[in-house]
């Protein structure tokens, strides 16, 4: 696991992301939601995606998009904080190329969850406090006392392969619903333009 050397995009890059989604065609805006849901849902990885949005603090509060890495290769993982400094999270590229992002605050008693790269095909997520385990592919609990899956951190890649955190979804929440909930708080007009239902 490595820490990102660059944990934030420049204001210009933020603006470019927002401009892209604001200026693109309606079709592209709809694609944006589809791509975000697809990429962050762990179903597939798009080669080029656009991002704009903000998000609740694992369900509450808002934050602007955050660039967390210039690139994440297969088998690699990056630790970061999002949306707040205390909101620890991890982004990982699985062996099949899928990009996933999870809160690393345990849903049991909030201990720090770590990745064990030598466990399983892609490394599981492990909480040492009471031996809780989570599936890194789905965030689901696979062992121990945690009562809920890990909240998801929504990730997208831009045209240069940089990875951005753009939002969060609560435990078990549909990624698109989480994205839209965050956008509604931060930028209702943008939420309308990209097709979020009220
Ligand atoms: S705090 Fe994580 S298993 Fe108890």
From TrEMBL:
Signal peptide bounds: none
Keywords: 2Fe-2S, Disulfide bond, Iron, Iron-sulfur, Metal-binding
Domain of life assignment: Bacteria
Disulfide bond recorded as keyword: yes
PROSITE patterns attached to this UniProt entry: RIESKE
Annotated ranges, domain Rieske: 75-158
UniProt xrefs under Pfam families: Rieske (PF00355)
Keyword match Oxidoreductase: no
Name of protein: Rieske domain-containing protein
């Amino acid at each position: 696991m490595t820490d990102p050397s660059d944990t934030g995009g420049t204001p210009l890059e933020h603006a470019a992301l927002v401009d892209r989604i604001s200026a693109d065609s309606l079709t592209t805006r709809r694609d944006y939601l589809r791509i975000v849901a697809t990429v962050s849902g762990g179903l597939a990885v798009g080669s080029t995606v656009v991002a704009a949005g903000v998000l609740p603090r694992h369900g509450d509060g808002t934050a602007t998009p955050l660039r967390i890495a210039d690139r994440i290769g297969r088998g690699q993982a990056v630790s970061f904080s999002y949306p707040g400094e205390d909101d620890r999270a991890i982004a990982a590229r699985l062996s099949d190329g899928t990009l996933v992002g999870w809160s690393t605050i345990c849903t049991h008693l909030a201990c720090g969850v770590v990745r064990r790269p030598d466990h399983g095909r892609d490394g599981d997520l492990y909480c040492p406090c009471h031996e809780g385990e989570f599936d890194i592919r789905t965030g689901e609990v696979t062992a121990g006392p945690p009562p809920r899956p890990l909240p998801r951190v929504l990730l997208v890649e831009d045209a240069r392969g940089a990875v951005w955190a753009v939002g969060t979804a609560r435990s078990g929440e549909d990624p698109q619903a989480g994205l839209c909930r965050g956008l509604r708080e931060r930028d209702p007009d943008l939420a309308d333009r990209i097709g979020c239902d009220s």
